[in-house]
Inverse folding.
């Protein structure tokens, strides 16, 4: 077993994701032509989201930190980030769950076009103490019109809330790193 001191913390994961994101954004400066503009969105929900027991639930987002190219519409399909330009995007989502140690799993998934997941983070078993947080990230290639959603699953036996935390939870982001 690894000592806790060398295991990454959620803060380490966030720092790594942001460093990688900034490095990849620097590549956009070298692009020319269509797609060279800043294309991305970071969305969040300002209220509690209840996740039913045993149900895969798409999270909805009622607000935007930024949306440079109309990737998100909080009034129409508020769970979706839709890609207006074909290319490779970096994506991440993060949530803080209500504390509850019942059940075996808390799962956070990035799903494409309402179908299969392309990235997931699972907690087994749920944390007995502290604030159960999850971060999921990936990068992938999308065509114009593809959309992604951040979905959650839990099996505690009761509905659990995803807690709103300013500038942290629940948040969902996609950023173009290379137009195709």
């Amino acid at each position: 077993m690894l000592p806790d001191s060398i295991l990454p913390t959620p803060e380490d994961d966030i720092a790594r994701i942001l460093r990688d994101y900034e490095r990849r954004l620097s590549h956009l400066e070298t692009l020319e032509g269509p797609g060279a503009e800043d294309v991305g969105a970071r969305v969040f929900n300002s209220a509690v989201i209840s996740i039913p027991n045993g149900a895969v639930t798409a999270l909805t987002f009622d607000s935007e930190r930024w949306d440079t190219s109309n990737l998100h519409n909080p009034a129409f399909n508020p769970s979706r980030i839709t890609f207006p330009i074909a290319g490779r995007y970096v994506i991440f989502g993060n949530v803080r769950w209500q504390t509850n140690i019942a059940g075996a799993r808390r799962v956070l998934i990035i799903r494409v076009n309402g179908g299969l997941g392309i990235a997931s983070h699972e907690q087994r078993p749920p944390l007995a103490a502290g604030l159960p947080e999850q971060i999921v990230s990936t990068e992938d290639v999308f065509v114009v019109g593809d959309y992604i959603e951040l979905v959650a699953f839990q099996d505690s036996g009761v509905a659990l809330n995803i807690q709103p935390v300013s500038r942290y939870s629940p948040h969902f982001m996609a950023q173009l790193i290379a137009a195709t």
User: Anything to note?
Assistant: Confidence is low (pLDDT under 50) at residues 1-7, 27-36. The two ends are 43 Å apart (CA to CA). The first strand starts at residue 40 and ends at 44. Residues 10-28 form the longest helix (19 residues).
